[in-house]
Design brief:
By secondary structure, the protein is of the alpha/beta class. 40% of the residues lie in helices and 15% in strands. It contains 14 helices and 13 strands. The strands form three sheets. Strands 5, 6, 7, 8, 9, 10, 11, 12 and 13 form a nine-stranded parallel β-sheet that branches. Helix 7 (193-202) packs parallel to helix 13 (371-381), helix 9 (259-270) crosses helix 10 and helix 12 (343-360) crosses helix 13. The longest helix has 24 residues, at 71-94. The radius of gyration is 38 Å and the shape is elongated. The chain starts with a helix and ends with a helix.
Length: 404
């Protein structure tokens, strides 16, 4: 029909040259690409559904395990084995760090997908058993006053000795009984090595330092404090009024938990460091005001020969009443000297602390480890002798208040 149409439309007397018709595919390039991608996708789905490989192509290592030689051969090779063992022992003595060359290789069963970890280059099994034992106590810690718990070593009374008396800092208590005394507790240590080190090194040994159970290594910092002859306390995180918006940290003691659950958390905190003469609240406005949840904690602290320091942040705290019922050494801060962290306000608070000491015989202040607090405390403490006031560790203030 197309050719007939061309002939009819051709002018008379002229001839036309026939055009060759171009070949066209029955589909477009985009359609071909779509079909190709569809085939690839179907291929992947088929492999995933019907291929028997639970690891999905993960690399597999095959290790040949051989049975040990017969017992009869052991006698033949015994001298060689003994020599090899002696050589290995000598090598280990020369290079104790070689134990760190141990490697753990994961062997994967290609048919089942089961994984098995194999330690290569590890030491003798006896060495592994030794590695499971708890670490040794810190320097200056009496091992008799430690008891193993599920979390580590925690304080305990033994042979008539209490952590409160053994770990109390040295002081002239006879002199303290005859003159006004001031005790200073710097709290919140352990988190922040720089500020903790400043408090340890810049303040005199008679200043008591309170550590939180947090930080990368609170035990190491606490040990350093004791090396510098500071008396230390352990702060126990307790539920504040605005919890959980204001969260003290992991393992906080809560009013919503049972006594067993809170005691379990209490043991976790006790195991975080050693050598403390007592415990103190860390936050805890709601918890320390609730008699039912505080009773088991105070009772347990007394049972383990500790003391209790109340930072004075909660007027409704029941800690003093409960401590008296358990004959637990107790002290409460009169106020925080750096509630307003400026030099002028801190100096004003320290003058107020002097007045309380002269009126009552004993005054207790608490501070944080802010640089301005450390600086003003250090300057003020140097003036106490001239004012007839004695700086004493917290335990000495506790014993004086109890005897008074």
């Amino acid at each position: 029909m197309a050719e007939a149409a061309d002939e009819l439309s051709t002018p008379l007397g002229q001839t036309t040259v026939g055009r060759t018709r171009r070949f066209r595919l029955p589909f477009t390039a985009m359609q071909a690409l779509a079909v190709l991608l569809g085939l690839v996708l179907v291929g992947f789905v088929g492999i995933a559904l019907f291929n028997d490989n639970p690891l999905g192509g993960e690399p597999i290592a095959r290790v040949t395990l051989r049975n040990p030689p017969p017992a009869a051969d052991d006698d033949k090779h015994a001298p060689a084995a003994q020599a090899a063992a002696e050589s290995a022992a000598k090598s280990a003595a020369k290079a104790p760090a070689a134990a760190s060359d141990a490697r753990t290789v994961t062997i994967i069963d290609g048919s089942s997908g089961k994984r098995q970890d194999v330690v290569i280059g590890a030491g003798d099994p006896a060495d592994k058993a030794d590695g499971d034992t708890p670490p040794l106590a810190m320097t200056g810690i009496d091992p008799r006053l430690l008891e193993k718990s599920r979390y580590g070593m925690i304080p305990v009374i033994a042979d008539g000795l209490k952590p409160f008396t053994v770990y109390a800092a040295e002081a002239d208590r006879a002199k303290a009984a005859r003159m006004p005394v001031v005790a200073i507790v710097v709290a919140g240590l352990g988190v922040g090595a720089a500020k903790t080190t400043d408090a340890i090194m810049k303040l005199p040994p008679a200043v008591t330092l309170a550590f939180t159970p947090y930080g990368s290594d609170p035990g190491k910092l606490a040990e350093r404090a004791r090396t510098q002859r500071h008396e230390i306390l352990l702060q126990i995180p307790m539920e504040p009024f605005d919890y959980p918006d204001n969260d003290p940290g992991p393992q906080t003691l809560l009013t919503t938990l049972s006594s067993e659950q809170n005691l379990d958390r209490f043991y976790w905190h006790l195991s975080r460091l050693q050598g403390y003469a007592g415990i103190a609240n860390f936050m805890g406005g709601r918890f320390v005001a609730a008699d039912p949840v505080m009773q088991p904690i105070v009772r347990e602290a007394a049972k383990r020969g500790l003391s209790y320091f109340d930072d004075g942040s909660t007027p409704r705290s029941v800690a003093q009443t409960l401590s008296a019922g358990q004959a637990l050494p107790f002290a409460k801060a009169d106020f925080a000297i750096d509630a307003v962290p400026t030099s002028a306000e801190i100096d004003r608070a320290l003058v107020k602390l002097e007045t309380i000491a002269k009126e009552r015989g004993t005054a207790v202040g608490v501070a944080s480890a802010l640089p301005v607090s450390i600086e003003r405390l250090g300057a003020w403490l140097k003036t106490l002798d001239s004012k007839g006031i004695m700086l004493v560790p917290l335990t000495t203030a506790m014993l004086k208040s109890k005897s008074g």
